[in-house]
Design goal:
It is built from 16 helices and 33 strands. It is α+β, with helices and mostly antiparallel strands. The strands form 7 sheets. An 8-stranded mixed beta sheet has the order 5-4-9-2-1-12-15-14. Strands 21-20-19-22-23-24 form a 6-stranded mixed beta sheet. Strands 3-8-7-33-6 form a 5-stranded antiparallel beta sheet. Helix 5 runs antiparallel to helix 6 and helix 13 runs antiparallel to helix 15. The protein starts with a helix and ends with a helix.
């Protein structure tokens, strides 16, 4: 579980800076609270009108509910979208979430009730949404775009009316540099809201007896109820947010033990102990770096945002890391700069670090184009010496996760509200940092960059007491935090170490409170680990989605309105509608024997889409690296099957067997359906196929 729990410094560099600028007041403990990068405005809703004479929809109001348990928060964001036009339109929204967050639920107002969404394979969800949208019926879709960016699509928003959509997400709290504080940012849109309501609950086991702080929300404070749960709530009207809303725990207990029982009876736990060594900004740096290469992302996804933090980090590295020779002794080529967009530019060489910094400043506003991280990966692998990569990690062209060949001397520095931290962590062996942070660095003998005080979590527990443990072996320079399932009926004592002497943590199932925060947090952490290679991990991601409701790059959340819709796409309604579920199950039994033409058409579309995806995967395979075998037999007489046989005879290889079974068989069925008068579904599938990556 190393990747999902490794260095989360992106969220821990500087939480209350933006709130302080907005005039928020904090208690005396505020200086110990971790801080996040300055707020950068992000417009959630598409502001481009569909027609020249139309106005874009707007976010009218926002209601946030958050509950903190252990070092994780479950958040529900309910948005009211307003349509100022004289006809019904679709309202797409895109929004970034905090580092490590995952969407775990959604709902749409249907009639007088909020109807929950269910996890569906991404392609199937898109087909259902777009088909129902053409029919003018109420669907909603929440899907992963890239990295920490998610998108909701709601239709229809009635003429001069509103729709309400809720998105639920789970996220780890950012831990402060000394491991004694934590915080979470609740993202806010860049628009004027008629109403904003925020309600927060924090378990005292997480707060350590100290009142949490709420930033960016006036002077609203927390109070403790009779059960020692800290609560804060308030409402503001007619405001334009100029910062995220920030929840901070200024004094974490050295040891945290949280236990929850989910609706199925399983007991989940979060155990956390404070790290052994504090990270300070004036820590000594080990000498020995006399050359390095900076890869600088100048693509369009970084346009418009502030890069001051990147420049600050680059200047800090240039000043702190020793080895720079005086100007009179400078050697050309010691320091190199590679600017990249759709492809890396030729490396430029400099004799001093100062010259390299000036070259970066000279880029100015020339940030445009797409990003091909596959091409960047090749260039990084071919570069000698340590590499410092400044990017948001968002690949917009190749569709591939970065791969630096397992190198230990590549470190990434990330800025901007939209980023792909999981892919960068995997590629950089966890060495991913927030630009502008005050973390000091040391250099290993292999040139690898480390944060001062870096350590790994170590766990010792009775055999059979714990199951599905996540976080063991993860970064523990600030805190060692693990999640998992408790199998023992009685209390369990475990020893958890964060780079120093082990601390005893007591977990007692009798003290478990009802909830799903910890179970969902475990699922989200697993999804984060698997997402960089989503297609290879497709089956496990879909299984996690079905069990926990957590969406992923291969699984979206879909809301449908009527029994007919749920039956049409063979999707089971949400558990929150038990009567509809029961009716659906009975009706599905009756339909399985004889499918209508419409149902056959829908299933045919799904088969075509699956076949298309299989075909694209086949085309992406580098067959030059596959050892030829006896050409397989390809069944079927369709034109695709015949083509596959010709290619198989030319190349060979066992991989053709799976491709021919999926693609050839589906294509032959498509030919048979077309001959039976089902050409319309094929035509309808064309836009979907055209949208698939080439």
């Amino acid at each position: 579980m190393k990747n999902a729990f490794s260095i989360r410094r992106a969220a821990t560099a500087a939480v209350f800076a933006a709130a302080v600028r907005s005039g928020a007041a904090f208690a005396a403990e505020a200086p110990s609270v971790p801080s996040l990068p300055p707020w950068q405005p992000v417009t959630w809703i598409d502001t481009v009108p569909r027609e020249n004479d139309e106005k874009p929809c707007t976010v009218d109001s926002l209601e946030i509910e958050a509950r903190v348990s252990g070092l994780f928060a479950r958040v529900s964001a309910t948005t009211v979208v307003s349509n100022p036009n004289s006809r019904a339109v679709s309202a797409p929204m895109a929004f970034p979430l905090p580092d490590g967050a995952a969407v775990c639920g959604c709902a749409l107002d249907v009639g007088n009730a909020m109807v929950d969404g269910v996890v569906v394979p991404k392609e199937k969800a898109r087909v259902a949404f777009e088909t129902e949208q053409r029919r003018g019926v109420d669907p909603a879709l929440v899907e992963s775009v890239k990295g920490n960016v998610w998108r909701t699509r709601v239709y229809p928003v009635p003429a001069r009316g509103t729709r309400t959509v809720r998105v639920d997400w789970i996220a780890p709290l950012a831990v402060g540099p000394d491991g004694a504080s934590a915080a979470l940012a609740l993202p806010m849109p860049d628009c004027t809201l008629s109403r904003r309501t925020v309600s927060v609950e924090v378990d005292d086991s997480s707060a350590g007896g100290a009142a949490p702080l709420l930033g960016g929300f006036g002077d609203t404070g927390f109070f403790a109820d009779a059960r020692r749960t800290w609560r804060a709530s308030g409402t503001e009207t007619n405001l334009a947010p100029r910062s995220d809303v920030l929840i901070a725990l200024p004094r974490l207990p050295d040891t945290i033990a949280a236990v929850e029982r989910d609706p199925g009876g399983d007991v989940w736990f979060c155990a956390s102990v404070r790290g052994g060594g504090a990270v300070t900004s004036d820590a000594a740096v080990v000498p020995g770096l006399d050359s390095f290469t900076v890869f600088w992302d100048a693509s369009g996804s970084r346009a418009g945002g502030s890069r001051d933090s990147d420049i600050l980090t680059l200047r800090t590295l240039a000043a702190q890391l020793p080895g720079d020779a005086p100007i009179i002794e400078r050697t050309p080529g010691r320091y190199r700069l590679v600017v990249f967009r759709d492809k890396p530019e030729p490396a430029r060489e400099f004799g001093t670090r100062g010259e390299l910094v000036e070259a970066v400043l000279a880029i100015g506003g020339a940030y445009d184009g797409g990003t091909d991280l596959a091409a960047v990966s090749v260039a990084v692998r071919e570069t000698a010496g340590p590499v410092f990569l400044f990017t948001d990690g968002l690949d917009t062209l190749s569709g591939e996760a970065p791969d630096f060949g397992g190198r230990q001397d590549v470190a990434a520095f990330v800025s901007g509200p939209e980023r792909d931290m999981a892919s960068l962590r995997r590629a950089c062996a966890g060495r991913v940092f927030e630009s502008g942070s005050t973390v000091a660095f040391t250099l290993g003998p292999d040139g690898a960059l480390h944060a001062s005080g870096e350590a790994r979590a170590e766990l010792s527990a009775p055999d059979g007491a714990l199951r599905d443990v996540a976080g063991e072996g993860s970064d523990a320079s600030r805190r060692a935090t693990i999640l998992g399932r408790l199998d023992s009926a009685g209390g369990v004592s475990l020893a958890l170490s964060a780079g120093g002497p082990a601390a005893e943590v007591r977990l007692d199932p009798a003290q478990a409170v009802a909830g799903t925060t910890l179970a969902t947090a475990w699922a989200a952490a697993r999804v984060e680990e698997l997402s960089p290679l989503a297609e290879q991990n497709r089956d496990e991601l879909l299984e996690i989605g079905r069990k926990s409701g957590v969406a992923s790059p291969v699984a979206s959340l879909l809301v449908l309105e009527s029994l007919d819709q749920w039956l049409r796409y063979d999707i089971e309604p949400p558990a929150s509608l038990p009567k509809l579920r029961e009716t659906w199950a009975e009706a599905r039994k009756g339909r399985m024997g004889e499918l209508t033409a419409e149902a056959k058409a829908e299933r045919h579309l799904e088969a075509l889409l699956a076949a298309w995806n299989d075909k694209m995967e086949w085309w992406r395979t580098d067959w030059s690296k596959v050892k030829p075998e006896t050409p397989p037999d390809v069944d079927g007489d369709g034109f695709v099957a015949r083509g596959l046989r010709r290619v198989a005879n030319a190349v060979g290889g066992s991989a053709f067997r799976a491709a021919s079974a999926a693609v050839g068989g589906a294509a032959d069925r498509a030919e048979e359906d077309a001959s039976e008068g089902m050409a319309a579904p094929v035509a309808a599938a064309a836009p979907v196929a055209a949208a698939a990556p080439a």
